[in-house]
Write a structure and sequence with these properties.
Layout lengths: L13 H13 L5 H10 L12 H24 L4 H36 L12
Helix pairs in contact: 3-4
Protein name: Plasmid mobilization relaxosome protein MobC
Pfam family, one: NikA-like
InterPro entries: NikA-like
């Protein structure tokens, strides 16, 4: 193991210092120095909790099956009825609605992550993620 015998000094505002200490504690660090070192040297990897997307995925799969059934019917019978087209359009609306919800959820989560990882998102800190 290498001895850590070199120092780097940085200047921060009181608010930034308090925020860094709070984040270090929140993420289980006993040392603020180690927290800062990990943030500076190691890549930050965000692992999304996809469990709340499971229901949406299941529903999208069901809609996709409906579309495939209609497509199979059309291929076999070589004709399209209005109710078939209406069902396809309804399925399309549902898929677009889910996609919009997924995008909104992802955007919200990413904003929250960025806010948390940018030292409280204050204007004194020029280095935003």
């Amino acid at each position: 193991m290498n001895n850590k015998d070199k120092q780097i000094h940085i200047r921060v505002t009181e608010k930034e210092r308090d925020n860094i200490k709070e984040l270090a504690k929140k993420y289980g660090y006993n040392s603020v120095s180690q927290y800062i070192l990990d943030r500076a040297v190691s890549p930050i990897v965000f692992v999304e909790n996809a469990s709340h997307f499971a229901e949406l995925s299941r529903q999208i799969s069901g809609v996709t099956r409906n579309i495939n059934q209609v497509a199979k019917y059309v291929n076999i019978n070589r004709s399209v009825e209005n109710r078939d087209l209406e069902e396809i359009f309804e399925c399309q609306k549902i898929i677009l609605k889910f996609m919009s919800a997924l995008k909104a959820s992802r955007n919200f989560e990413m904003k929250e992550i960025k806010k948390e990882w940018s030292y409280g998102n204050n204007e004194d800190t020029p280095n935003k993620i």
